[in-house]
Amino acid sequence: MIIDLLESQKLDLEKMRFEYTYVDVTKLMEKCESHYQNIMQEKQIQFINSTKEKISVTTDRIRLLQVFDHLILNAIDFVPNEGGKIEIVAQTKDNDIIFYVKDNGIGISSEKQKEIFKKFIELATQINRRHGGTGLGLHICKGIINALEGKIWVESEPDKGATFYFSIPKIRKKIEMVMKLI
Asked: Which domain holds residue 62?
C-alpha cells in the first residue's frame, strides 16, 4: 500500500522517473505470459497472449510491465475460479501501439466506468476480493500511460467481462519535436 501511495504521489506531482529504452514489445508480451502462467494454471484460468505482430518501440519497459501487472492482477480478481479467461494483446494501429487485457469476469457498469481511474476507487462487488487492493492501481496505470503520452480506457458491461485498453505512440511527440528542431 505504501508503494502504491508513493507511486501515485510521484505521478500526481510529475516526479516519477521514466527510462526510455528500446523495447521488443513482442518479447515483453511473451514475458507477461510466462510470468503469470503458473498463477493462471493454479487458479484454472485460461491465459492467452494473442499478440501476432513483431512490434518494437522506445518506451519505459518497467513502467509498461507495471501497467500490465495492475491490469492482469485486477482481471484475476474478477474472473470466475473455474472457466476464467484472460487475454492480452499488443498490436499496431496507425501511429500507436494498442494493448489490452480482456477478461470474462463480472464486468463494470457504465456508471462505475466513469470513476474507475480515480484515486481510491475500488469496485464494490459481491465477490470477495482475492487479494487486498489499495484503490490506486488503475489511477497509477492512468498516470503512467499519460506520462508515456498515451491513453487508457475500459469497455465493459455487467456480467460480460471487461477489456482494459491502453495505447502508446510509436514515436513520442517530445522526441518528434526535438528531431524537427535538429
From this structure: 2-181
